[in-house]
Amino acid sequence: MKDNNTILRKVLAGAVGMSIILSACTDLNTEEKDSVVINTAGGKFEGDPTSLLSSVYADLGALTDQANVYALYEQTTDEMLPPTRGVDWGDNGVWRTLHQHTWDPTHQQILDSWNQLNQRAFKCNQILASNPSDAQAAEAKFMRAFFMFYVMDLYGQVPFRNVDEGVDVNPKVMTRSEAFDFIVNDLNEALPNLSVRGPSADNGKASKASANFLLAKLYLNKAVYKSSVAEGPYTFDKADMDKVIGYVDAITADGYSLEPQYFDNFRTIASKELIFTSPSGTAQNRIYMTLHYDQNPSGWNGFTTVADFYAKFEDSDTRKHGESIAPLGKNFYGIKRGFLIGQQYKDDGTPLTDSRTQKPLVFTPDVPLSGAATNKGIRVIKYHPADQGKYIFFRYADAYLMKAEAIMRGGSSGQTALQLVNNLRAVRGASALGTVDATAMLDERGRELYWEGVRRTDQIRFGTFTSTWAEKTVTEPFRVLFPIPQQALDSNPNLAPNPGY
Amino acid sequence: MTKFYLYVSRYLTVLLFLITTIAWSQSTVTGKVTASDDGSGLPGVNIIEKGTSNGTVTDANGSFTITVPGNAVLVFSFVGYTSQEVSVENRTSVNVSLSSDVTALSEVVVIGYGQIDKKDATGALVSLKPGDFNGGVIASPEQLIQGRAAGVQITSASGEPGAGVNMRIRGTSSVRSGNNPLFVVDGVPLSGDDVSPGSMNGALGDSPPKNPLNFINPNDIASIDILKDASATAIYGSRGANGVVIITTKSGKSGAGNIEYSYNLGFGHITKKMDLLNRDEFISAYTQFNGAAAAATLDKGASTDWQNQVLRTSVTNSHNLSFGGADATGNFRISLGYQNQEGIIKHSGMKRYTALLKGSKKFLNDRLTLSTQVTVADVHDDNVPITNNSGFEGDLFGSALKSNPTAPVYNPDGTLYQPSNTEPNPVAYLNLSRSFTNTLRSLGNVSAELQIIKGLTFKTVFGFDRSFSSRKTAFSRDLKANNGIYGIGRAYLNDIEVSNNLWENYFTYNKELSSSVKFTGLLGYSYQSFSNTRRDIQLANFRTSNLDLMINNLASIDPAKISMTGNSSSVKDELQSYYGRFDFTISDKYIVTATLRADGSTKFGGNNKYGYFPSAAIKWRASEEAFIPEAFSDLNVRLGYGVTGNQEIPHNLYQERQRYNTSNFNTGGTLDQADIGSVSFKNSDLKWESTAQINIGIDYGFFDNRLRGSIDYYHKNTSDLLIQVISAQPAPQPFTYTNLNANVINKGVELALEGDVVNNGDFKWTIVGNVAINKNRVQNFNGLLNTGQINGQGLSGAFAQRIANNQPLYAWFLRDFSGFDENGISVYNGGDFQKFLNGKSPLPTTNAGLTNNLRYKNFDLSIFFSGQFGQYIYNNTANAYFTAGSLANGRNVTKNVVGNGESNLNAPDVSTRFLENGSFVRLQNLTLGYNIPTTNTFIKSLRVSVTGQNLLTFTDYSGQDPEVNVNKALNNVPSLGIDYAGYPRARTITFGVNATF
């Protein structure tokens, strides 16, 4: 009996042990308490289109930074220079390589811009898959077109991912030409459901005018985007130029016109030119990135323009030197608008001294790219610290000049290009031109739109982007496209390196 | 079954029960067991009354007490010694001398789910006992064994008390942060997560979390066993790839209860201050750049050594008290510890209270063993604002290096002199900020082991690991430090709660299959859950400058403004495992081991929840063969292969999930509006990282084992590397975790050597040495990953390291500096761009340790040198602060900057100018001890000692210390070997006294 009991106990103990093991299994499913799992099956996205749309607009703030997309459009051109000043602004050479066109596919800002723009375009896909209203869908399509436009313009290849395509799916890639058609189609689909918005101090929302503006820009540059070789030469088609004229006329019909006081465009008041602005991003980085640290407000003592660009302005041109904005003694009185050159002043009107060198703070036209002293280079203020408006993406004067250029390139209109350019110049206090050719047109766009983030596209369209200017030699023709970032190539085999890189 | 809750109180009940059931003997035979070679008392000798289970073990002096009948026979046995039987013959005192058994060379080593004689171990493992440990002021278990084991590299991030520790076994095989080994404490595997929060400090940068192992009182550790190769670690499967460190706490020993008490008093002082300009040298150097007028403006008239303003001589007090006992059926030990460790920077320190309760008891004719262990630790850290990534303004120590030496600490009116946000006063950092962390952590287990039939046992273990940690930080609005603090004040509340549970069940079976074949089998199931809850609150716009009110009266924020923001999270992961191990010992010559573990984890989705990790090893005990010459007292050959894994990635990265992002304060005290955003992205293919490792080893012993050691060669190949990479855009988030299509190869040789140079009665001299050589390469990798963020003025976006094909991990990627041109501008070989530098990396190629243990009568002396060779360090401190441009901007620099030919307009871009050879040899530990002879019946033993730590360092590195690793990760890709004004390292002298009652 005893033996039987012992055996029984042993069997029992073993059985208990085994049953513990076998009954213990968990299915290893997780329960999420601090996040929401989104089901994307069937290409639907279980998100809230209203909050997603507001977040897409809020995301525009990233484009107001002095780095990344803005830098790719400005530091690479003949109107801006990023000097390294001793221990300031070396920043691992990112600025110098942009200015000298010596970037490679590992350039940090080229990668960051790629990521910023594409990530924002994808959020628009999420809105479109989350059962939006017709108006929301139209705004999402405009915003998708807005971001994809930059990707197409900068990189020449545009990847696309549906909302239900996970990490294991390599995004398909559109050529520049395919992307052009895709963007134009998005805008055409969006137009009927976009609202009509006239000029306003707060146009941080897609409208018919903003879609028409982007369409005008697309068709004006269509020859570039459809060119079989990115660096051209480009052949501009009359039909495309007529379209540009039509889109600009549609914007004008919504009530936009040239603002008589140039710098009123950058104030908090309602300018007649503001078509599309950033609703939450501010223009403060445009101020800090250029002002000297001893000025008020104390800046980062960074970017300058160059003597050759400054020399393109007549003294009477109101775009060159604005008036002081605040009364003597008030905060920021020392900062003028336009180009800051020569002796700089405190708010009370007394001359400023550089606190590091104890020498008068005098901005000089000459400025080297490396080893620049703290006072070198002409600074630029369009948004004034005492009265800075919303950050502008689309301004009517740009559309106005696009129409003039389209006429110059063969488009049909009742006006001539010279009339339009001289109309604008008259408003800005500049003397009338006798003729307008490509060089004059590019110069006029520079004078009107300097430091507003359009210069690279203009220089490429006019064929001057790889020519020489201050601290830059003639560069390789393939530089008209940025490289697909190395890490993007590594992440998606459907992307190919751009020619030359 | 997933939920079970165990409370400390239950453990206490069990423990009290165990203690009270140990039966104390009433009548005794006493005696002492000594070693025949030197006559020293042998502790831990097993004494059994032959034919019964009645037994005891000797105490620390070799003494024992046992109750037996007068005709009993006592069996004395001890590993490494020949057993001896002695008849009592009615004596009340029996003294025995044991001779060492050289052929056995026995030492028990702890392996996963059991322990074995070292002679039977097939894997590469190192077992370290208290005699091998570093002494002095020790904050964590890793510091105990730093430099002591071949192939184990231990680097603490800085000299801060309780700083995080990097431990690398056989090189760095993974790219991301999951590179530390798995720690198993008394059978409970710990999660690798931080248990205490790091901190945000406004724009000052981030402070790293402390070492999660600080909760273990080093004095409670009986052994640290390091499993190095895959055949040893594969039983831990997915968590074994970086090695396994098994920590076993002390158990009660000796028949009667022993009280042990120790006290240590330590003094620390900075090893090396930076050689900065004094006020006159500073003004003179500045004048050369900016002229006398500017220098006159800069000269504030004082003469301040800012390093001295923030440094101090630190004092550390520690007390340890333990009480333990054991008999043949059970043992118990209670230990209390207190350590108050000051840092050498004012206001910093770590205070720790620990309690450890451990016991076991046999029941049912010794068939059932119940055991428990509970550790409770209360750790209080006083933190100072020293961060990983401060800007050019400098954190506490950075500003002490660069501050104007002519500036006064205080204004004439007694207030702090604070010129501007960009030139903060280091003393203001100390006086106008406060940060402390309280961490309460408890780790424990209760287990039952039942012998079902002879040879077959079943063991079940419930383990738990609970931690509550809260960090509170306040910066006064009066602190002019950066734009985000002055005028508004800042406070941060960061909490982490961790709750991990373990249920482990396994069968062990021992059987002699024939006279020459022995079999041991292990079969088990394990479930472990890991819960982590965090809460981070930021506050600004305070109405008060009172730091106590800011922390303890949150309503002191301005209600008229948005003054509070934050976020919280809570995640739980599970791991479910099945495992087995089979050992065959054939003719005592051949030992074969095979293991398999299947791990299922919630960290992987859909397609790859389970990973399978096999290993096999064979050992040939050649010295058992007749043809091996007698000169070999021991000769073994080991061969092992195995695959282990790594799953140290964040929670649920395989489903698309969204949550609301944290809104942060702008510099003006207003909030950035943050929206809902994606935190992960559909990724069902994510799978285990795996490492395949081959190990070939030889254990040898000559001249009756007076010279002994081992040589190992290994080759590790890590594939499917888990790493965060750039998402293939367009994507919902910028980064995605993926299994990188690449291999990381580590191969190397480890040599361990131990020799008794002199061994005669009164004098014994033993040399213990280890050398490990490792070579690391990334292979088959088509992409690139940048890391090693470099901070400082004009260094935005700068990085110094790139992971790429055919380079070592974290290879330096820099401009090749060749000097200054005639204008003082940097010239770079090959132009102004970054490149690899012939494989220069922060990974040491060689690690070595050398210990001399000398004993003469009651004196003992231990001298330990450690060294690391072949690694390069990037001196971000010099890059950010010690340049002509920085001097021209009115900031102090080291003396070597003056007259070095650099223009004040030169840009100090990242280059080899700041890359330095980091090789060093260090006199790491020196202990002189004296055992005071005692005949006192109350005090059984008494020892006094003095220990020096970090006494001497031989290095060419110009920074504070070459053992440095400030976290400069970029996009979650970790960095290595970058120095950035980290918490400086101290030289410490500690006086100690130990007594047994």
Give a structural overview.
The complex is a heterodimer of chains A (501) and B (997). Helix content of chain A is 39%, strand content 6%. Chain A is mostly helical and 501 residues long. In chain A, strands 2-3 form a two-stranded antiparallel ribbon. A two-stranded antiparallel ribbon of chain A has the order 4-9. In chain A, strands 5-8 form a two-stranded antiparallel sheet. The radius of gyration of chain B is 30 Å and the shape is globular. With 997 residues, chain B is mostly beta strands. The two termini of chain B are 47 Å apart. In chain B, a hairpin with a 5-residue loop joins strand 15 and strand 16 (206-207). Chains A and B meet through helix 1, strand 1, helix 2, helix 5 and helix 17 of A and helix 4, strand 24, strand 25, strand 26 and strand 27 of B. Strand 1 (36-37) of chain A pairs antiparallel with strand 32 of chain B.
What is the gyration radius of chain B calculated from CA atoms?
30 Å
The percentage helix of chain A is 25-40%
Number of strands of chain A: 9
Mean pLDDT of chain A: 92
Can you tell me the overall shape of chain A?
globular
Largest sheet of chain A: 2 strands, antiparallel
- Sketch the major β-sheet of chain B: 22 strands, antiparallel, barrel
Key phrases:
heterodimer, A: mainly alpha, B: 997 residues, 22-stranded antiparallel β-barrel
TL;DR of this structure?
The complex is a heterodimer of chains A (501) and B (997). With 501 residues, chain A is mostly helical.
SSE blueprint:
The complex is a heterodimer of chains A (501) and B (997).
Chain A: H1 2-23, E1 36-37, H2 49-58, H3 69-74, H4 94-100, H5 108-128, H6 134-155, E2 157-160, E3 172-175, H7 176-190, H8 208-220, H9 222-225, H10 238-253, E4 274-277, H11 284-288, H12 307-310, E5 338-340, E6 342-343, E7 362-363, E8 379-381, E9 392-395, H13 396-408, H14 417-427, H15 438-449, H16 455-461, H17 486-491
Antiparallel strand pairs in A: 2-3, 4-9, 5-8, 6-7
Helix pairs in contact in A: 2-5, 2-6, 5-6, 6-7, 6-8, 7-8, 8-10, 8-13, 10-13, 13-14, 13-15
Chain B: H1 8-20, E1 29-35, E2 46-49, E3 55-57, E4 63-66, E5 73-77, E6 84-87, E7 96-98, E8 108-111, E9 114-117, E10 125-128, H2 141-145, E11 152-156, E12 165-169, E13 182-185, E14 188-189, E15 199-200, E16 206-207, E17 221-227, H3 230-233, E18 244-249, E19 258-270, H4 279-298, H5 306-310, E20 314-327, E21 330-342, E22 349-363, E23 368-383, H6 396-402, H7 426-431, E24 433-453, E25 456-475, E26 490-512, E27 517-540, H8 547-552, E28 564-586, E29 590-601, E30 610-620, E31 632-646, E32 657-660, E33 676-680, E34 689-702, E35 707-726, E36 735-760, E37 763-779, E38 785-789, E39 799-803, E40 811-814, E41 816-820, E42 826-829, E43 835-836, E44 846-856, E45 859-869, E46 872-875, H9 876-881, H10 884-888, E47 915-917, E48 920-932, E49 941-955, E50 978-979, E51 986-996
Parallel strand pairs in B: 1-7, 13-18, 46-50
Antiparallel strand pairs in B: 1-4, 2-3, 2-5, 5-6, 8-9, 10-17, 11-12, 13-14, 15-16, 17-18, 19-20, 19-51, 20-21, 21-22, 22-23, 23-24, 24-25, 25-26, 26-27, 27-28, 28-29, 29-30, 30-31, 31-34, 32-33, 34-35, 35-36, 36-37, 37-44, 38-39, 39-40, 40-43, 41-42, 44-45, 45-48, 46-47, 48-49, 49-51
